[in-house]
Design brief:
Layout lengths: L5 H12 L4 H8 L3 H14 L16 H13 L5 H7 L10 H11 L14 H5 L10 H14 L1
Helix pairs in contact: 1-2, 2-3, 4-6, 5-6
Length: 152
Amino acid sequence: MPRLSEVDRHRALGLLQAGLPISEVSLRMNVNRTTIFRLRQRLHETDAVSDRPRSGRPGCTTQRQDRNLVRNHMNNRFLSASASSCRTRAKNNQRISANTVKRRLSTSSPIHRPHPDPASPTPMYAMDPGTCRVGSHPMAKCRIQLRISILH
């Protein structure tokens, strides 16, 4: 079920103030009735509908730094996480760890490259094990002949 944004919360409260019942508002907003009920209850208790502060350790990088990390890794696929961590400074001007870079990339990277399944063989080996021998590729013979000619 989708979480209501700040705009959607205010729209739901506007519908409630217009006189629509909670069930009708929940159908229009595509959320559970309990969500709208708790939203109205929170408004009466705290006079606010914004997100409450969450517990937990604050992040060491800003959203802008996270976007820069993703952009740098998208532009340069061979950039390692440790090299990227050396370039990026945290909010307190300290170096961030390579694991932090990996976490940021895994959570916000638009491209996901799945790990190869070890159970499924590659197409070259799937055809026939007898055809896949060392040096069976036509270019392999050319490389061997080239090396021999350079040595002589």
